[in-house]
Design brief:
The protein is 44% helix and 14% strand. The chain is of the alpha+beta class. Strands 2-1-3-4 form a four-stranded mixed sheet. Strand 1, helix 1 and strand 2 form a beta-alpha-beta unit.
Length: 118
């Protein structure tokens, strides 16, 4: 399991605490140290959908004025690769190529406590 995000993000911290409390091992990938590229972001967008991946409520989205632009998915992916903070956090890869974005304790309970904790 890999958790992607920014170490000082509140949602990322909650996800890591949840995993630690449940005894679930994970690898943390910090966007600031290891930027996520177009290929990886495209895979995530195809798996979970652009609406679940792109954080339209964040300050980066608003600062860049993306809401005022007409962007196709390829352009959105390009923006996210250049500004990883545009993605909802955390992004978790788990199981057989499954992906989740954002923190939701109820979803985590169902998804991660029910799967093998290794």
């Amino acid at each position: 399991m890999k958790i992607y995000g920014i170490k000082n993000c509140g949602s990322v911290k909650k996800a890591m605490v949840f995993m630690e409390c449940e005894g679930i091992e994970y690898e943390f990938v910090d966007f600031k140290k290891t930027p996520i590229n177009v290929d990886k972001i495209s895979i995530w967008a195809n798996k979970i959908g652009m609406d679940k991946l792109l954080n339209k409520k964040g300050t980066t989205y608003k600062k860049l004025g993306l809401g005022e632009m007409t962007l196709d998915d390829a352009a959105k992916v390009k923006f996210m690769s250049e500004n990883n903070s545009l993605m909802k956090r955390p992004i978790i890869e788990y199981g057989d190529d499954e992906v989740l974005a954002g923190f939701d304790e109820g979803v985590y309970e169902i998804t991660f406590v029910a799967i093998d904790k290794s």
